[in-house]
Amino acid sequence: MSLRNSYKPGEWINRAKEINFTFEGEAFTAFEGDTISSALWAAGQKVLGRSFKYHRPRGVLSLANHDVNILMTDGTDTNMRADVVEVKDGMTLQAVNTIGGVKKDKNNYIDSISPLLPVGFYYKAFHTPRKLFPFWEHMIRKAAGLGIVNFDYPRILKRKLHTHCDLLIIGAGPSGLTAACKAASAGLQVTLIDENRHLGGSLSYDHGGHKVSAEYGEDLLKKIESLPNITVRVGAYAAGYYPDHFIPIVETGGITKVRAKAVIVASGAFEQPPVFRYNDLPGVMLGSAAQRLIYRYGVKPCHNGIVFTANDYGYRVALDLLAAGANVLAVVDLRAGGNGGLHNLELCKRGVKIYAGHCVYEAVATSDKSKVRGAVICAYDDKNNVALTDNKFTVDCDGIVMSAGWAPAAALLYQAGTAMQFDYDVQQFVPSRLLDGIFAAGKVNGIFELDQRMRDGERAANDALNYLGKLAVNTNAEKHSGGAPSHAYAMVPHPKGKNFVDFDEDIQIKDFENAAKEGFDNIELMKRFTTVGMGPSQGKHSNMNAIRILAKIRGLPVEKIGTTTSRPFFHPTPMGHLGGRGFHPHRLTSLHDWHEAHGAVFTDIGAWKRAAYYPQFGQTKADAIQAEAMAVRKSAGLIDVSSLGKIEVHGPAAAEFLERFFTGKYANQKIGTWRYTLLLDEAGVVVDDGVASRVADDLFYLSIGTANAAMVYREMQRCQQEWRLDIGLVNVTGAFGAINIAGPAAREILSSLTELDLSTEAFPLGHFRETTVANVPTKVIRASFVSDMAYELHSPMRQVPQLWNALMDAGKQKGLRAFGSDTQRLLRLEMGHTIPGIDTDGLTNPYEIGAEWVIKMDKPYFVGQRSLSILSKRPLRKQLVAFTLAANFKGEVPLECNLVIDSGEIAGRVTSISYSKFIDRIIGFAYVAPAKKAVGSSFDIRTDNGLLVAATVVATPFFQLQEA
Amino acid sequence: MKLLTCPINGTRPLSEFIFGGEYRQAPDQNTCSDAEWAAYVHNRQGAPGDKKEWWYHSPSGTWFIAERNTQTDKVARTYLLADAKKVVKESK
C-alpha cells in the first residue's frame, strides 16, 4: 500500500536511483534523497519508533529534525534522527529504545501502567532507602535509555575552520533568501546557512495547493546563484551565539567558527502541536510535516485525512493534501468563527466539510494501538476551553494533520541577549530589543504572510547595511496582518488524559497540573519537575505549550510566566565536533631532552615543564628526593633552573625603578654584586622575591621565581606605564638558561672549567661575575638558596646543554648528580628559606615572615609602602616560624595546610613540611600565634586524622639540629 | 569569543588579553589618611556601569586602558595610558 506519489518538480528525491535498506530486519526500498522516515512512511510503515517513557508507538511528527521519538541506529551511529537523516544503500537500521523492535516492543506494557507513573514518580519512589537507589537507577536507565553507546566507534576526525564575513544569515527561507540577495547586491560578503539539505525553507513545501511560493523560491534561488559574494552552506546549523557575532556552524564534516560583522536571524518558527487525547498516534502529524512529505519526498501523508486546525495555516495544509491526492474528510477548526479566508472558500467549493468551533476530542487507535483509524469530533467552547461532547461523532481516517501555531526558533536571539516580548496579535514571543548588529526577520520576528516575510527580509538586510555603514533606505518594519498565526490555547481537555504536550518525555496536561499543585509553579521549577523541554528536542515543540498551560493554571498572562533559558548548543552536537587539540602552551628548557633521557619525573610550574626528581631503579619519589638531597649535602648536585624569570632593566633610571618596584635599596648597590628583591602589592602583601644583579650603573639583571615570572614582568610593564621612568625592560627569560651547582664539591668542580678565581676572598657570597665556563659565556651568581656553597650559572639558552654536560663530566668523580625541583624545595627548607606563594598566601605581610630586614621605609616610595606604614603600627596576628617534630617521630606526619591548634582554636597552619634525611628530623614552616614565635616554644599541629602532634620552634638553618 | 581592540595591535580575540583590574588613581600616599588609603587598596566599586579598566595584550606586552560598560559589556574605546589626557581632551 504505497503512499508514494508521482513525480513533481522541486522534490528532493532522485527517482532514477533506487536504494535498498532494512529496518528491523525487513527489507525496504527508497529513492536517493529520501530520509529514513520518508522512505518508511512511503512504504506504509507507520510505527517508526517508541516513546521514551511509556514506549508508545510513534510516527512522523515534524519531519524537521524534531522527531525525537524516531531515533535509529545503524550499528555505528546511534540516535540518528530518521526524520532528516538521508537513507543510504545497504543501511541496516534499528529503532533505539525498544526491546524486540518497534512493533512488539516488550516495554509497551509501561503504557498500560502509566497511571502508576505520575510526574515526579522516580524522584519520590526511588530515592529512599538510599542504598537501593543504584539498583533502581540501573533498572530505570535500562527501561528509558536513548540508544546504546558504541565503544568501538571509529575515530573520525572532524575539521575545525575559522571564517569571516560581513553578514551571516541564519535560515534560507523566504526572508533569509531575500535578505541575502539584498545584502549581496549591495556588495556585502554574505554567508547564508540553513540546516536543511536545500535552500528555500517553507518555499519548498508550504504551497497551499498552489505554485506561487514555489515560483518565488525558484526566482530567489536563481538570484542567489548569480551573486558571487554569497557563500551558501546547507546542512549546517548555527549551534550557538557568542559575543561579537562569533557563531559556530556545525556540518557533518566539522565545525566552522564564523566571525560576522552583522547577523540576520531568519530561523523561522517551530510548528506547535495542538494537544488532545492520543495526539501522538502514528498518523497524527503536524501540518508542515505533511507538506514536507508531499513536496520534498513525493509521499502522501495519508489516504483519508482530517485536518485539525486552530489557525488559517491548516486550510493551506488541507489544500496541499488535496493536491497530493488525499481525501480531506473534514477540516476541524477550534476557533468559534473558523476562517481561513480564500482557502476556506476554495475548500468548500471542493466539497470539504469544515467544522468551525469544533475540536478533535480524541484520536482513535486501531486495535493493535499502532496507528490512528479515526477521530472523535465534537463542538468546542473556545472561550472556556471546554469540549462539548453531547453530539460527538467519529470519522474514520488514517491521518490527522494538525495546525495550532508556532513558536519562534529564537534560541540564538536569546543567547545574543535579545529582549523578547509577547505579541498578542501573533500570539508569539517576538524580539523587542536586539543587540547591535543582530537583526531578526520573518517568522522568528512574528511576520508570517509570504510577501510580508520577503519584505521583512529586505528590511533586515537594509538595517544590516545601515549598521555596517552603507546607506540603505526602507527600513520600516511591518506588523503582521491578519489573524493570529498561533492559537492562544489549542489544548483540548479530556478526563482520561493521554493528551501529550511533550513527546520527548510523554508529558500530559495533568502532569503540569500536578506539578503546579505540588508547588512547582514557576516555569524553571516546573521544567525540572516535569522534565518538560529536557528531552532531545529541548522543548522545541513543547515549551510554548508548557508556558501557556502554566499561565492558565496560575491565571497570569503568558508574558508573566517567562521562558526558560536558552543555552548553546541549539541542537545536540556530537562530541567529535567539540573535541580537538588543547591550546595550553608549555615551555621546555634546552635541557629537556637530557632530563627525559635520565628518567626525570616532570612537573608543571608556571608555563614550564620542570624535572621534579630523577627516580633510579624503582626508587619511590621520597627516596629519590632524599638521595638527591644527600648528594648535594655530601658532594654536589646540579639543577636546571632555566625556567627562572630573567629580566634586564636598562637605563639611567634603572636603580630608581627597582627602588620603586621592590622594598629594598639599589641606588647604592655595587656593580658585580646582587641583592635580594621582595615585591609587595599595594596592600603590602608579599607577592614574590628574587635576586637583582647590578651589571652596570644603568643595567640590572633580575632573576625571578619560575611560577610568578610572567606576572612580575607584566606588573613591571604596568608600573612603567604609570611611572614613565627613563628605562627599558627586556624579558630575557627564554634567551638565557640557568644551572645551579650546589654542594661542598661545587667549587672544585666549577673551578676545573673556568679561569675565574672562585676563592671566597675573590668571589664572596652576594657577588656575581661574568666569565666563561666550559667556553660558554656565563654569568656566575654566588647565591645560597639551596646550599652555602652554590653557584648559579646563567648562559645563552642554547649553550646550556654544553655547560651542563661539561659540569657533569667534570663532577663525575666527585659524586655530582642531577637533582630536580622537588629536591630543591627540600634543600631550601633545610636552609630555612621561604618561598612566596608556598610559605605565604594572599594575606601575608612581610613582617609575618620576618622580612623586615629588606624593607627600607626611608625611601620616598615603593609599591606597598603606604600599606606597610599602617600595618607596622599594628600588632602581628600570626608569625611564620621554623619548627621540628621530636627526634625519631613515629606518628602520623602532619601535611602542608594542616592546622596549628592553640587551646582548641586555630592559630595558623603548616606551610612546608618534610622529612630531611640529612638532618634526620621532620622540619617545616608554620604560622603560629606571635606569642609562640620564640625559639624553643612548642605548639600543636592537628593531622588529617585529628591527632595533635607537638612541634618545637627552632632557628634556621635547620642544620643546627644535627649537632643537638 | 569577544573581541578587544589593542591600541597598538588592533582588534584581537579576547584570549590574547589579560584583565588587569579597574584603573584607579591612587590618593597621594604622603597626605592621605590611613582610612583613605585603606579604602583605595581594599574597596572596589562593584556596581555595573562605565568603568576604566587595565587590559594587557599578552603576545605584545601592551598595557592599555579600556573604557567598558560592565553591564552591557560594550567597550567604548581603548587607549594607552600615556594618551589618556589626549583622549579626554578630544572627547570634550
Question: What descriptive keywords fit this protein?
Answer:
heterodimer; A: 964 residues; alpha+beta; FAD/NAD(P)-binding domain; 47 strands; B: 92 residues; 4-stranded antiparallel beta sheet; two-stranded antiparallel ribbon; 18% helix
Strand content of chain B: 35-45%
Please state the overall shape of chain A, judged from the principal axes of the Cα atoms.
Answer: elongated
Largest sheet of chain A: 7 strands, mixed
Mean pLDDT of chain B: 92
Oligomer: heterodimer
Give the CATH architecture of chain B: 2-Layer Sandwich
- Strand tally of chain A is 47
Which chain pair shows the most residues in contact? A-B, 21 and 23 residues
Report the sheet with the most strands of chain B, covering strand number, pairing sense and barrel closure: 4 strands, antiparallel
Instruction: Please tell me the CATH architecture of the largest domain in chain A by its name.
Output: 3-Layer(bba) Sandwich
Strand order in the largest sheet of chain B: 3-4-5-6
Strand-residue proportion of chain A: 25-35%
Instruction: Tell me the structural class of chain A.
Output: alpha+beta
Low-confidence stretches of chain B: none
Report the radius of gyration of chain A as a whole number of Å. Answer: 39 Å
Query: CATH topology of the largest domain in chain A, anyone?
Result: FAD/NAD(P)-binding domain
Give a written overview of the molecule.
The complex is a heterodimer of chains A (964) and B (92). Chain A is built from 25 helices and 47 strands. In chain A, helix 5 (174-185) runs parallel beside helix 11 (450-467), helix 8 (313-323) runs parallel beside helix 9 and helix 12 crosses helix 14 (543-554). The mean pLDDT of chain A is 93. Chain A has seven domains: 1-150, Roll (Ubiquitin-like (UB roll)); 159-270 and 407-467, 3-Layer(bba) Sandwich (FAD/NAD(P)-binding domain); 303-403, 3-Layer(bba) Sandwich (FAD/NAD(P)-binding domain); 500-576, Arc Repressor Mutant, subunit A (Orthogonal Bundle), CATH 1.10.10; 592-642 and 736-828, 2-Layer Sandwich (Gyrase A, domain 2); 645-731, Alpha-Beta Plaits (2-Layer Sandwich); 875-963, Aminomethyltransferase beta-barrel domains (Elongation Factor Tu (Ef-tu), domain 3). In chain A, a hairpin with a 2-residue loop joins strand 43 and strand 44. Helix content of chain A is 24%, strand content 28%. Chain A is an alpha+beta fold and 964 residues long. In chain A, strands 8, 9, 10, 11, 12, 13 and 26 form a seven-stranded mixed beta sheet that branches. Chain B is α+β, with helices and mostly antiparallel strands and 92 residues long. Chain B has a single domain, classed as Folate-binding fold (2-Layer Sandwich), CATH 3.30.2270. Helix content of chain B is 18%, strand content 39%. Chain B contains two helices and six strands; from the N terminus they run βββαβββα. Chain B has helices spanning 34-42, 84-91; strands spanning 3-6, 10-13, 17-22, 50-57, 62-69, 74-79. Chain B has a four-stranded antiparallel beta sheet, with no helix packed on it. In chain B, a hairpin with a 3-residue loop joins strand 1 (3-6) and strand 2. Chain B starts with a strand and ends with a helix. The mean pLDDT of chain B is 92. The A-B interface holds A 242-244, 246, 259, 436, 682-683, 713-714, 717-718, 721-722, 724, 731, 861, 865-867, 870 and B 1-3, 18, 20, 26, 29, 32, 34, 37-38, 40-42, 54, 56, 61, 63, 73-74, 80-82.
